[in-house]
Amino acid sequence: MYAVRRWVVRHSRGFEMIYNAFEPLIARLDPLWRRIGYARAEGPVARVERAVKGFLFDCKMCGQCALSSTGMSCPMNCPKTLRNGPCGGVRANGHCEVKPEMKCVWAEAWAGSQHMKSGTKIHVVQKPVDNRFRDTSSWLRVVRQIAEKRAPQGEQK
Prior knowledge:
Methylenetetrahydrofolate reductase C-terminal domain-containing protein; DUF5981; mainly alpha; single chain; about 45% helix; about 160 residues
């Protein structure tokens, strides 16, 4: 997994393009998700998301994905689960103080963001992880947020 996730970060621009194509496609499925019921769709969608993102990004399924803001490097892979940048213990060679064999997740995130068109998003401060969303689909959460923005005022989704 580690080798795959490092490869993905090196190719973050391509994965950004894939994500930018995927997001509107899955968002267009909002009527289907509403018809099925978001709660009923959650399990199967989360399993697919876990398989795909687990393989590519070593995703920890926090439910609040920040990959598009962190150079395609999942911040939840940090042993300290730091969401907004590296700790003070990054070694001179860019490796983690807790796991010296591992490159710092945030050193990787910075490198990955430099390849991305929207690489400046790494400067946006992320909200703390809300553990109520652990093991849920961030894809469906994004779809609901997009649908809510599109809905006329007062209309419930």
